Amino acid sequence: MLLTLLAITLAPQTAGLPPPSANPPRSVPSPAKLPPANPLAPPDGSDERAVLATVDKLLGGINTRDAGTIGAVLLPSASATVVTDAADGPSTVRALTNAELLARFQPGPETFDERISSPAVEIDGDMAMVWAPYVFRLNGKVHHCGTNHVSLVRENGGWKIASLAWTSRTAGCPA
After folding, report:
1. Closest Cα partner for 118 from 133, 104, 101, 137?
2. pLDDT for residue 113 is more than 70
3. Burial 99-120 (b: 16+ CB within 10 A, else e)
4. How far apart are CA 95 and CA 97, in angstroms?
5. d(CA 7, CA 30)
6. Other residues' Cβ atoms within 10 Å of the Cβ of residue 159
7. Which residues face 42 on adjacent strands?
């Protein structure tokens, strides 16, 4: 009886979906930007520029290893998640607190250079998202690459980063 009730309940939710074995293990990157989220941003593009300026400040802080600059664009409650794709094994997921994230960018002898390309920016009122491929160079050489996902909120008229997530891999990175 319980199984019949469960099957009846789930049937409308799963109707028309392919069997789980038909789903690919990883999504395939789309060459196009994300679909519109019915944005409520001004039509002049000023919000998009402001969102990207916040991300640029983050990248500037990363590249100069300046935790103060990075912290200035983060909400105090901001966190980060990194998904590392190992070339010879399963991916790992690591969550970082705000303090752990900032500790990664203390002064040191190595030079950092992280650059994004083709950012997709979506804005809905006081919430925004940036999705962009990146390449990270250590001492001028490609160290790893992946995709950044930055979630932002507008607070007191300015954009702050609420959370960061990124993938990290060493294979298949552009030179």
Report:
1. 133
2. yes
3. eebbeebeeeeeebbbebeebe
4. 7
5. 34
6. 23
7. none
Residue-wise pLDDT for 148-172, tens only, equals 999 999 999 999 999 999 999 999 9
What's the token pair of residue 11? 């049937």
CB 3 within 8 A of CB 91: no
φ, ψ of residue 166 to 5 degrees: the values are -155, 155
- For residues 162 and 75, give the distance between their C-alpha atoms in angstroms, rounded to a whole number: 6
Q: What is the DSSP letter of 39?
A: -
pTM of the prediction? 0.75
Q: For the chain, how many helices (H) and strands (E)?
A: 4, 7
CB 149 within 8 A of CB 122: no
Give the C-alpha separation, 166 to 150, whole Å: 8
115-118 contacts at long range (C-beta below 8 A, 24 or more positions apart): 115/59, 116/55, 116/59, 116/148
State how beta strands 120-124 and 127-138 pair. Answer: antiparallel
Amino acid at 119: P
Neighbouring residues of 4: CB distance < 8 A, sequence distance ≥ 6 = none
Q: How far apart are CA 68 and CA 53, in angstroms?
A: 16
Half-sphere exposure of 164 (CA within 13 A, CB side): 29
